[in-house]
Amino acid sequence: MPESPVLLITGASSGIGAATAKRAIEAGYRVVLAARSLDALEALAAELGGPDHALAVICDVTEWADNERAVARALEHFGRLDVVYANAGFGATRGWLNESPEHWRAMVLTNVLGAAYTARAAIPALKESRGHLVLTGSIAGRKALPGSLYSATKWAVTGMGESLRAELHESGVRTLVIEPGAVHTAFFDNPPEFALDPDDVARAVLYALQQPANVDINEILIRPIAQPV
Questions:
Q1: pLDDT tens column, 54-78
Q2: Among residues 29, 85, 117, 150, which one is catalytic?
Q3: Residue 227 lies in a domain
Q4: Nearest Cα to Cα of residue 84 among 160, 5, 26
């Protein structure tokens, strides 16, 4: 029987990343869990079945070497890499005067450069497997939100996804930008009651991954039915 496919997720310790890892395990994937919080990753890896099914790898996506190392560990441990999900990211308070410049810098580096680094590190392995590259965008990458530098970072991710698709389509690598609206995660201090559950987003990601190899779903915009934006 063929080996089960392998999915590497950044920002995997909680929220959408953790929910996607759980759904992937149910769908027969093995997973590589990458984030800065090793304790949380190791706990999740144990919950998902231990080293035969889930590997925890510490990774700061703003560090190029960490991205290279995560991909290398996936290949060393499982022998293949079929999907890479660049999911790490965080937000900021809206308003051009309401967040520290240091917070802005960290957010831009994580949301934009971090996603680009993860994609760059993954492309050679994904070309080999004719695999799938997934980026977490946002409804904020479709609509410019007032006073939101976060929104600008997600517009960058939307553009990055299309740029990657245009470069990789002849290689057999498929690309997806998943664009959630409000989700019940640590991203929001007080998420609205109508917000999506992280598992709602995870199911959408798995839907795209499980399409036939000739079908490339490039964008999924998913938001709760009551969301006004």
A1: 999 999 999 999 999 999 999 999 9
A2: 150
A3: no
A4: 5
